[in-house]
From TrEMBL:
One annotated GO biological process: mitochondria-nucleus signaling pathway
UniProt keyword Methyltransferase present: no
Record's keyword annotation contains Metal-binding: no
The protein, known as: Pentatricopeptide repeat-containing protein
Family membership noted in the UniProt record: Belongs to the PPR family. P subfamily.
Each PPR repeat, start to end: 161-195, 196-230, 231-265, 266-300, 336-370, 371-405, 406-440, 441-475, 476-510, 511-545
A cellular-component GO term for this protein: chloroplast
Source species of the chain: Vigna mungo
Keywords, sorted A to Z: Repeat
Entries under Pfam families matching the protein: PPR (PF01535), PPR_2 (PF13041)
Classification lineage: Eukaryota, Viridiplantae, Streptophyta, Embryophyta, Tracheophyta
Top-rank taxon, per record: Eukaryota
Amino acid sequence: MCFQRKPNTQSLVSPTASPPLFLSSVNLTMSLLITKLRFSLSYSMFSPFLPNPSSLSSFRLHYHSQPPPSVDVDDVVSEFHLMFRKRPVPPINEFQQILGSLAKMKHYSTTISLFKQMELKGIQSNLVILSIIINCLCHLGQMRSSFSVLAKILRLRYHPDVIALNTLIRGICRNSDVKKALTFHDKAVAQGFRFNEVTYGTLINGLCKGGETEAAIKLLKIIEAGLCKSNVLMYSPIIDSLFKDNLAKEAYGLVTKMISNNIMPDACIYNIMIHALCKEGKIKEAKNVLAVMVKADVKPTCVTLNILMDWYSLVNEMKSVKHIFNTMTQIKVTPTIISYNIMIGGLLKSKRVDEAMNMFQEMPKRNMVPDRVTYNILLDGLCKSGRISNVWDLIDEMHYKNQQPNVITYTCLIHAFCKNYHLDKAFELFKIMIEKGIQPSMHTWNILIDGMCKGGKLQEAQKIFQYLLIKGYGLNVFCYSTMINGLCKEGLIDEALTLWSKMEDNGCLPDAVTFEIMIRALFEKDEIDKAETFVREMISRDLFT
């Protein structure tokens, strides 16, 4: 059961679904789910943005345990070392408990180090400890070492349980080598080992992440033929992959099949569907799915609400974004850093800079630590609103909070300088970025070239452009259009036409903007015949709007 060749998803399903089929797929899936839930749904009973918080009072919220108390790792390590000196030596399960706790806290290297010290002291490990070490090694990507520990388990005549084997399979998949994971599975089965639902969920997830959607579907069919019981964790990665491959009809078909098999969607499945609908701009259908989710007594997660916030922010409906954000606390959903970033970004996009800054300053009061994305969003908004004086304070704060500026940070600042014609400062900042070992993106280069052209430094722009050509950068249509526009502005029409030819020779096709730049410049130079030739060419390429 090993899939050697990368399957062609197109051979399984049609590439796209027409709108009527797409909508009927949504309706069929929702209809079946509603039938399973045995209720009649009236969408008008729900709020325009979210269900009324009072309608969520029936959620069965379970808090199985409180968050683990904060533990000082140094204290744990000291306790472990103290155990070495005890006489008699404590039972192995006490060592096991400490190693397990450290692994749960994700201190993988420390766990492995203590394990090695334990072995040097002659303390014999048990199967549980060796399984813990396999887990730590897999998390650190040390797969060769993890298999060495498996070999040790077999040498000691322990029988590895399914948890240890699942850990190895998960580790192999995490290292993007699902084919090896499948081979390992086949060999283990041939030697009499048996796997469970977790194993096959991991393999399906690995196949989907590797773009092997058809292979994942085949594996699901084998599972449902009697290998083991299928579950929602097997369906969700396949459904997600189908949506990402623009195969919405097939994705909804799989949701329908899942429901008909009495496997009810969880929050992850609902989130996948809501995200796909928002991505298509189908917010009404997305809200319908949310309504069904609520009626099914599946509590919307922070991911659910972030998806909706992000969509409303994209279409600049900040009233809806704020409504959802405020609803989070009412339904006992804790906002994440992503929630705050969406809110701050939306406020800045709406030119509500002071509100964005206030929200940023409130974050520490709510035990929320701004990340680099938060700072970059703020910097971009401040630069675009012309509040450069606030930018440097924010940069200083980034350094103080150990959130080092990246290429996005520098590009944002360079763009602000270019926009305000502070070209020397822009270039100086560019040099600092290079000195810090941060490689500029194509967007950074485009901003510099555009800034130099608009600031009357065409020669500098040409030098940068030639450097990029020589170095083999894949220049995009924006870069060529910017340079052609700069040449045209200086009246260098022949040079612009030469660059146009090079552009097409290099496999970069001009877009409508490039044509408009050239046509306008030719008309201004009374090159009417040439301009009309470009107009006809533009029409023939279906670029005329």
